[in-house]
Amino acid sequence: MNYFFQLENIMNRDEVRKDLELVRALNLPDSCIAAGYVRNRVWDVLHGYDHETPLNDIDVIY
């Protein structure tokens, strides 16, 4: 499996999808979630954590 598919699988998890849907609901044109959010999710999965690292916020760039 290549890195793109690994990242896609991580970002398609239910808890992540919920966050992405909340940002999408803001209807901000050309917005994206900052890399820290993605890094935390990837880190948790690659290190086998059973829980998500708690987030204080999600940085949205628009």
Descriptive report:
The chain has helices at residues 3-11, 14-24, 35-46; strands spanning 32-33, 60-61. With 62 residues, it is mostly helical. The radius of gyration is 12 Å and the shape is globular. The chain has a two-stranded antiparallel ribbon with strand order 1-2. It has one domain (3-53). It has three helices and two strands; from the N terminus they run H-H-E-H-E.
- Residue fraction in strands: 5-15%
Estimate nothing, just give the exact number of structural domains. Answer: 1
**How many distinct beta strands?**
2
- Give a quick account of the main beta sheet: strands, pairing sense, barrel closure: 2 strands, antiparallel
State the shape: globular
Strand order of the largest sheet: 1-2
Order of secondary-structure elements: HHEHE
Mean pLDDT: 87
Q: How far is it from the N-terminal to the C-terminal residue, by CA?
A: 32 Å
Q: List segments where confidence is low: pLDDT < 50 over at least 5 consecutive residues.
A: none
Rg from Cα: 12 Å
InterPro entries: NTP_transf_6
Organism: Paenibacillus macquariensis
Pfam family, one: NTP_transf_6
Protein name: Nucleotidyltransferase
List the helices and strands and how they pair.
Blueprint: H1 3-11, H2 14-24, E1 32-33, H3 35-46, E2 60-61
